[in-house]
User: Fold these one by one.
Assistant:
Number 1:
Amino acid sequence: MSDSSSNLSSKWTTILSFGVIALVAAWALAFLGLGQHDHRPALSVLLGCLFWTSLLIGMLMLTMITRVFDAGWAPVIRRNWEFMIGALPVVLLLGVVPLAFLPDFRHLLWEWTDLKHILPSGHEVGHDPILQAKEWFLNEKFFLVRISLYVVFFSVLTWAMRNWSFKQDTDRTASHTHTLHAFSAAGIPLGAVALTMLAFDCLMALSYHWFSTMYGVWFFALSIRLALAATVILTYRLSNGGWLDGILNQAHRHVLGCLMLAFTVFWAYISFSQYFLIYTANIPEETFWYNIREFNPVTGLKSDWWGVSMYLIFGFFLLPFLALLFYRSKIVPKRLLTIAVIIFIGGIVDLWFNAVPRQIVDKTAPEGFTVSPFLCGGLATDLLAIAGFGAIVIGLFLRSATKAETIPVHDPRILESINYHE
Amino acid sequence: MNERNERIFGVACTFRKPADVFHAAEKVRDAGWTRWDVHTPFPIHGMDQAMGLPRSKVPRLTLLGGVTGFITGCLLTWYMNSYDYPLIVGGKPYWSAIFPFPVLYECTILFAAFGTFFGQFILNRLPHHHHPLFELPNFARVSDDTFMVVLEAHDPKFHVDDSRNFLQSLGGQEITVIRD
Amino acid sequence: MAHAHDSSSERPAILDKVRPAELPRPKLILNDRGFHWITDKVCGIVEEPTPLWWKVLFGVALFIASFTGLGLFYLVSTGTGTWGLRSPVGWGWAIVNFVFWVGIGHAGTLISAILCLLRQKWRTSINRAAEAMTIFAVMCAGIFPLFHVGRVWFGWWLLPLPNQNGIWPQFRSPLEWDVFAVSTYFTVSTLFWYMGMVPDLGVIRDRAKTWWRKAFYSVLALGWRSGNRQWSNFEMAYLLLAGLSTPLVLSVHTIVSFDFAVSNVPGWHTTIFPPYFVAGAIFSGFAMVLTLMLPLRAIYRLHDVINQYHIDNMCKIILATGTMVGYAYATEFFIAAYSGNVYEKFAFINRAFGQYSWAYWIMVSCNVITPQLFWFKKVRENHSLVWIICIFVNVGMWFERFVITCTSLANDYLPSSWGYYSPTLVDIFTFFGTFGFFSVLFLLFIRFLPLLPMAEIKMVAPQADPHAH
């Protein structure tokens, strides 16, 4: 290990402590919000957690997918994913788990768990016939069981993907590659189910009347996009005074650029299809979800959420899409980095769009509710929580990097990966 | 055959292995030739750089086709469903970019594919059935397993004897003069 | 080979530790076959005298194809009432068969385009035949909606052309989107297929002995000279067409799924339909590729270029896409229960336990359960078993479309108008005959065009690397 990379790794305690401080602050705000019956600061913690959960699940899926494909370019990059995904259980344990297990937070965030909560129609949640029809799934006990299962499942899978890969560093055994191949082949379908249910429970169920079969696929698309964007940002830093200095080459960037392009299109395809089918069929049970993201129910005019959705179309899809069409955008490091940062920010906006708007009971409004606004102080706590979780993830990432070789020196495809060319 | 028809197209030289022709191409490039080509049964990886060719211009025609297609789709759907015979169906507006999106999308792809397909043949000057190379007896084997460097007479550096010797120095095997 | 490293700084110390564990990659071409062997093998198929089995099969295929002719003749001369369509099931076999055949086509584009972008070199051995399959399958698919319009001589009203009523096509209808999607798909697939074939047609031209052969293949080869200046444009165009075909193939089955999903019929209106249909299409298409390629490989002794590695990969893709389809079935069921919507709930319970439950369970067992056998290496190595499983998949995917189309229509919102759909003899004849029509086209392709892409196979041979020593 060169001096520069050991310097980088030694910073892990500093970064981790910064993350802990930021996260404690975000949680403190959430507890303050509890007193005023304000769900927004708690939602910030959930958003911060889900943002990094999504990103790390994306990296886990990419790790397994490149294993199954036996991709020759992957090993030098995959090792960094392996370092990163170790943080996944920690992120879940510091965010979603306490939010779900502490009844006060649970009742604030997941309205259906609070049977006394009053709906815009004037009824209590407990008497809502739609909830009664869903009770077999949306009940508190089963919900907590599922949340625990996600933690167990992702802990086991991330442990497996790291364990045998790191082992290969010391014993240079090819059979570990077979073991990981088998784990990945089984892990991809199981992971798909787990991430779908996680998206249903943590995001879709925030607005429990609404449903979409596409939702799990959307979450997968977002996860991979975030993972790739983060990979580009991370490898940019690591190849400038980190352990990928002199190892990461133009062809690696080109692959990452192509994958970012592909998944930008895939995300747009999934998001558009979901919108388009609901728009064209025009069934009220589904359209209300998009309506509260477009109109102010009091004035009937476009709300600030409409601006957010326009940002998603133009800023999160069209801009990166058009930029990535050009060959040079995929190989010039600074350009690729810029596009990755745009996607990274867009991912936060997409989560805002999906998680934040909710109907807030207001007897004076014509339809009995208003929609929680986009522009509010909550945005600051969101960013605080995202930064807090992020620093913890990066701290743990750097710590992992001291535990194993920074590139998988005995991976059967390591030479292919180092010498990879277009 | 009388002398007027004895014009020369160029000199050809065959090679047996991709590596040989690859290195020969690099030397021809470094010698500053412009009117020449390497004929191979399949595209050899990295040959464009070895020959010093610029990136192909086909993508520009693809882009042109795609933009044309998108505009055509917009005009088509707007003219037919909103201008010439406006009709309300399913509570949708007369024209918006959302409901005819599948049509716009398909038009974009169709025209972009036309741009690519015809662009490729135009840039390659095809169809072109009568070419001096086809008169060369061993040219038929180029599509099978033989590699060939052809230096054309149009190149300012071309001189029959010098060019032959040059090809000889590259390690070529059969060297032939191609009549036009 | 020079390493394309960016940083000019000194070599990282960790590179000295790099010592990969031994795990050789599988070979794409066995027995170290050379370039000339590949040319001989592929051109030999076209150049040999017409074999007896070909003549027999061609006759049988023509005979089977005549059933479609008969069915259509009866339909056109009598009316669409001769099909089993009646209220409430207005979309019967015609739509089922259309979606089935279009879906089959998708594997060809997946192999030629998506696997090309993913740089899966093993695709080269099978892509030409798979692309041909795409085009012929789309032709079979086109028959059904064309004749479903009733007065087929007005079929051109689907196109954006002015007619005597002064009315234009209606672009809010998914059926009109289909017209654009399927015709674009057919056109672009044909262009892609033909362009990829031009260099290989040049090879056959260069080997032609008789003048008519020379003339035929010369015209088709357009005077291709395989110069690197041509290859450079060719390769770029090929890559671009692959890049265009990928979103195209996704959009085609997406739009086919829109036919169902933009409605508000329970069981049809579900947002996962687009990717689910695409996965299903690729699934059925790969099964068809294997169904065709396994016998061809045996007949023409292509074991060196289509080896166990290729078959393994195709089996794994079938396994993966079959599992995706299973995921979609499960998600649909889950959301139907989760939604709390009584109609949705009923639609799915009715599928599994109602009057069409037999079709539903055929679908599930063929599509989700049988492909799971491909987890086992032993199964993938037993080619007769692979072939049989692929037939199961083909059957299952036909039933999937049947289940979607018929169960939802036969039992929708109004119980008073429920019914039971059965096809008539005319339906059966028309569908059965399309297999003959498909086979006729495919046999002609085998006989007259290069079955395997020679240039691309040569390209992935180890001796093609200019840096190899």
Note: The radius of gyration of chain C is 24 Å.
Number 2:
Amino acid sequence: MLQTTVKALISGLSGLVFERVNIMKRIVSILQIIFILQVAPVGAATIALFPFEDFSTNSGIGAKLITEIVSSQVELAGHVVVCPAELNDFMGRHRIRQYGVISSEQAQLAQKELGIDYILLGSVMLKEERQTTATASIFTLVRAADAHVVWSYVDSYSLADHQAMFNLSGPSNLEDLWTLLALDAFAELPEIMLANLLPEQESGNIIVEHSEPNLQIDFAAFHPRHVKPGENVNCSVRFRTLNISEEGEPTVFIKVGSRVHTAQTDDGFEYEVSWVATEGNPGPPFKLAMNDPDLFYRGMWDSENLEAGYPVNIVVEWPSGRHDELYIGSYIVDSTPPDLKLIASAKEYNNRKIFRQRLPLTVRWGRPEKVDRWKLAVYDQENKQVISTKGTAEPPASFLWKGTNSSNKKAEEGLYSVVLQVWDLAGNRTVSTEEVYYLPELPEVELTPVVSPEDESIQLALFLDHEPLVPLKYWRLEVWASNNDLLSFHEGTNFPESITLAALDSINVDDDIDAKLMVLDELGGEMVTSFKGLYAMAAALQEMDQTQDDTQKSSGSGWDEGF
Amino acid sequence: MVFSSPFIALAWRGVALTFRSAEAQSFIVCCTLIFLQGCSLGQQEPLYQQLSETPGQPLCRLVVLPFANHTESSQAGAVVTKIFASSLQRAGYSVALEGNVRQLYQQLRIRIDDEVTQEHYRIIAAQLQADALVIGKVVEFQENVEKGRLDPTVAFEVGLMETGSQRRLFTTYFKKTGKNYRKVLHFGLINTLFRLTRIMSDDVIEQWINKGLHTCAPS
């Protein structure tokens, strides 16, 4: 009956709407005339129109208008709308700052304090830009007693919707659109409110079977979430106060896996209790603190020895005998260090990894695992740290050491340990070490020229100043005249015993020959050495040898004499 | 405007006189309906993927988690979340209050755009006593102005996770513009993002129900 009346009213009003007058006032007055003649429905409900969330930039206008319209409609249908001032007080008291949403706890508080049956929530949007003028809204009717959504509505109107149809006269501005939208949205609202009243509410005796969770947790936290076997786990839980104050002090348990940690409540803030397994076997003690004023529960227990994930539930037993159980999270007992290995990519010579300029290091995982932190460091033979880097979470898949120290200077040649340490979330540590030899330079090459007295040819002897750690790969000797003519070249993989350079036609001090020696080793290191004036070098060496011989002779005679 | 032309009016009068019988007029009406229907046949269905077998039992209580927002519109996630929850409610599901979900996000220190872990899903499901979680993201949410008219475009991906088994049941990707719903001339055109999102949400939920997702609504 009511629905039919409202629909008839809407169609009758359409003429007024299209006349582009201040239709809202007309609608309200006509509604009043019609409904004054009607008898208010039996079992009228009370509704709180919470402020609407406004998605538009020029907020407030649409929300205010639509609030007025819906107020008129539900009031005229015999329902009661909570006074805005009273609602504002309620929102302020309970710090409800977010418009358009409400929690079940807040809904139930509103039912209790404001005596309401329903809450209307809304989100609205309006846009006023010539032909793209549009309105949109999402409305939700929540039954306060059980915080159950009984009705919802989403729609949107734009001027384009109406002007497209053969250019008939239609709504011309935002206010017209809002009115149309509100009339459409709330035509059936009064009947919906009646239809969804709970039987107990109608009789005035409110006993509600909550559809929302009885046990509402305000705060729950674990520390740590990953533990080694036997380490302490701390858990803090705070409940909301709403139902607890009504039903009396509950007994709180913490159930970990199949074990139930129980508490005695007779001696204050912190006390020791023992847990019992479901089989009835007593286990090690744990502490549970209860701070009554805040209803703040804190539990601490030793973690299990077996590696696994352990679900934690809060169990609450109320004086009425009701039993609530709520999952609040889980923790992992972990005794296995991360399974990974550091691998240095360097060539091996005599079971030793040797690198020259760059040492690529790769982290290879056996079993992927979440990581808390890591540290990579290089230590010398005296176990002194040369360079290091560290980070949180997973280490990079690869590193590169350029053979420098923490001052970014080249480290000395020698044996180093590259150590990667990784800690998992439970604190288990893995250490992976690679021994590497840093060889920044090739050995020095020495060249000895000897001039043959017979034919003035030169015998060249090449040798390294010490035995190389890395074999030579290639060498090349070029002999150059002073006029930049290449006289000859010699090459190979190993140094020969000697190289003979044929005598030149004209040799004098001003017209000497030079040599340039290039050596490559298997690590790709290259060394180029120039030797200027081989004849002069030979002469100098001969002179030096002569001097040494003379010295030996003179000292030898002295020895003999003394002997 | 078109019908005001004397020539067309005359032609129309001629057609009416020709098909004066009831059968002929019915034939014309049927042809018109077929034409209008034909215009809407090009509409595409949501791209649906079934990931697990649909549970035999109805999923009564659903929790709609805030949709991740991958668009440039700052409100897209919030709007689509609300509209999808509203569509589910109208389809007969009991939907947890948005305020409860937000409170739990705050408690678990999850921000809307954060990645939600399996552990979070378990806690949310347990604390809000949900049979299934609705998880989604908005990919497009924009209005283009063409010749003074708005042409909205919405694209979102939405999935359903059964909380008991932690299995993803469905995932659906759906993209539409206001023009996609045009039937003939301007009929059927959708000019606003909200209405387009509502229709798309209704379409997705209808598809899920057709694929075997039962509601708890009394028949």
Note: The CA atoms of residues 146 and 212 of chain A lie 7 Å apart.
